[in-house]
Amino acid sequence: MTAVWLPGDLRAQILHQAATAHPHECCGLIAGVRMAADFRVLALHPARNLAVDADRFDIDPRDHLVASKAARAAGHQIIGCYHSHPDGGAEPSARDLAGAGEENFLWLIAAGGNLAAFVYLCGGFVAGDWMMSSG
Ligand SMILES: [Zn+2]
Fold it and tell me: pLDDT per residue over 10-22, tens digit each?
């Protein structure tokens, strides 16, 4: 089982970013602490979406670099990424699977006002279990 800890305000931030970007996908990187299968989200780093097509995302490498440096400076690491599915479900698409590569990486997907968590492990996505202390 993979435990995902996400503060309510950060959850709201992702959903707000997804709604603002609609009909395009929003995207960003997730900073926090990862211990084995336990992911604690501590900060979000919204990123520019370089993808031309509306239904895909491609995180700007410059934003990735800035997020990595900020995370390191705070004693965190980049433990995952998030993006939205403007017209799809809150589950990884075939395109997401093709684009995933980093092992034990958290993926949060926003769709229709919902947020779902997955972890990329051994070539596939497994559903994450939400652990939320408040709301
Ligand atoms: Zn996707």
Answer: 999 999 999 999 9
Residue type present at position 31? A
Residue type, 42: L
CA of 109 to the centre of ligand 1 (A): 7
Give CA–CA dist 98/93, Å, rounded.
Answer: 9
Residue partners of 16: CB distance under 8 A and separation at least 6: none
Q: What is the pLDDT of residues 66-101, one digit of tens each?
A: 999 999 999 999 999 999 999 999 999 999 999 999
Is the distance from CB of 109 to CB of 84 less than 8 angstroms?
yes
* Interval between CA 69 and ligand 1 midpoint (Å): 25
Q: How far is the CA of 95 from the centre of ligand 1 (A)?
A: 7
Whole-model pTM: value is 0.94
How many A from CA of 70 to the centre of ligand 1?
Answer: 25
Between the CA of 54 and the centroid of ligand 1 the distance, in Å, is 11
Q: What is the dihedral of CA 60, 95, 97, 92, to 10 degrees?
A: 90
How much distance in Å is there from the Cα of 82 to the middle of ligand 1?
9
